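Hi V.,

Quick status before I head out on leave. The structure for the redesign project is tokenized and pasted below; the design run finished overnight.
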């Protein structure tokens, strides 16, 4: 029994896009660009499943990765652009209507392709003002090719065969996903290579072992029909997803297995999450980075104060002030160091809290990061425990726009970074 070469290529792109998309989603990133790119890769794997099983490309499904990446590109643009938030809202409200219209008239796909190309150009243009200018430029260029590949497949004009269209689109999507993964890791101050390699080897080890069983059975029986294809795709998906989301599955099993009154599950999750995050620890030399880079890393560390496993991957755990052989102890020590620096932003005086200009930098980092309060969500009301917190929350919601809070947090992070560097020179 000979397996068609085209089927091997489709299975390769299916498995690779499903794994990379799942990997991005499993990172639990708060960046919409990362999450939307992950979902775009997963939806492309769905396109390939339909093509493998039924030999048909559904244009509406092909539009999904393009629409998702359009949103990802809009979130990648600088927050300083006043029209950015309006463009994102337009994208959100037009997502479903565009898919419905695409079912009625195929030429609506032109609008999606043009929007994708425009967003790619905007990303390239924003590269000049971004800290990650080279990465942004690469992402934008790849997105341009991704838009052209999408047009080849979805426009009602046959430029190339569907097989080569799948190859081109898959290749561009994988490059795009890889570039976004690297950008996210750099932005978080993480070393991604070993963690990514570990996930890849683990996922394809199990998926490959399961796939070989189906191939052997098919070779013995001499056929590779619909049933065998369905079984092959299902087992490959199972192998990849169970390994990529291994930690999430383990947490669910712990909830089912361990009694609710026991702290065993929480302790186990903390240890296993920390162990899983260890390959992400960067070996960056903090003495060689610029002040701007050190402030950016400090801001990232502040945003992870409530997540010790993520905090343990910060390059700041390599500071001389953070001395320990245990990763969790280093994370605790770094958290204490950061909280102590945050407390130095608090104005000296008799008042325990305030909302004047003197308090803005302290409030901007203490309540969102140290207390974990989300000022602009309704769920923040549940976290209120005293009158002072209620007053500060109302002040955020009525007097402090989100962009202003973001700018204050950047300034506060610079002040905290300077404080840490001063203590670094005196030790």
């Amino acid at each position: 029994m000979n397996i068609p070469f085209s089927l091997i290529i489709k299975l390769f792109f299916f498995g690779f896009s499903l794994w990379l998309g799942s990997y991005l989603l499993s990172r639990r990133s708060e960046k919409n660009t990362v999450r939307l790119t992950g979902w775009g890769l997963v939806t492309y794997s769905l396109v390939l499943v339909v093509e493998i099983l039924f030999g048909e490309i559904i244009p509406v499904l092909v539009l999904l990765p393009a629409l998702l990446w359009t949103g990802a590109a809009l979130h990648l643009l600088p927050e300083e652009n006043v029209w950015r938030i309006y463009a994102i809202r337009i994208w959100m409200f037009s997502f479903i209507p565009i898919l419905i219209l695409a079912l009625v008239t195929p030429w609506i796909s032109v609008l999606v392709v043009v929007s994708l190309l425009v967003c790619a150009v905007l990303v390239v243009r924003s590269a000049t003002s971004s800290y990650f200018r080279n990465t942004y430029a690469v992402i934008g260029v790849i997105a341009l090719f991704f838009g052209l590949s999408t047009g080849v497949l979805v426009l009602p004009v046959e430029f190339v065969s569907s097989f080569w269209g799948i190859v081109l689109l898959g290749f561009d999507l994988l490059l795009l996903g890889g570039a976004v993964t690297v950008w996210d890791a750099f932005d978080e101050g993480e070393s991604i290579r070993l963690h990514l390699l570990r996930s890849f080897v683990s996922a394809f080890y199990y998926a490959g072992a399961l796939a070989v069983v189906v191939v052997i059975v098919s070779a013995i029986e001499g056929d590779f029909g619909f049933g065998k294809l369905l079984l092959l795709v299902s087992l490959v998906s199972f192998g990849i997803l169970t390994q990529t989301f291994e930690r999430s599955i383990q947490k669910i099993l712990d909830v089912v297995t361990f009694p609710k009154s026991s702290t065993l599950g929480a302790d186990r999750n903390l240890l296993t999450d920390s162990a899983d995050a260890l390959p992400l620890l960067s070996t960056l030399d903090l003495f060689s980075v610029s002040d701007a880079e050190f402030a950016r890393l400090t801001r990232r560390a502040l945003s992870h104060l409530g997540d010790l496993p993520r905090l343990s991957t910060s390059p700041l755990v390599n500071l001389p002030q953070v001395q320990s052989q245990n990763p969790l102890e280093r994370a605790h020590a770094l958290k204490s160091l950061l909280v102590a620096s945050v407390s130095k932003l608090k104005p000296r005086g008799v008042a325990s809290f305030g909302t004047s200009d003197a308090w803005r930098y302290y409030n901007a980092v203490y309540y969102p990061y140290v207390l974990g309060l989300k000022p602009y969500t309704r769920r923040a009301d549940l976290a209120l425990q005293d009158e002072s917190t209620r007053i500060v929350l109302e002040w955020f919601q009525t007097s402090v726009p989100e962009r202003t809070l973001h700018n204050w947090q950047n300034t506060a992070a610079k002040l905290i970074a300077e404080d840490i560097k001063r203590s670094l020179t005196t030790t």
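Above is the designed sequence. The chain has two domains: 5-244, 281-426.

G. will cover questions while I'm gone.

Best,
W.
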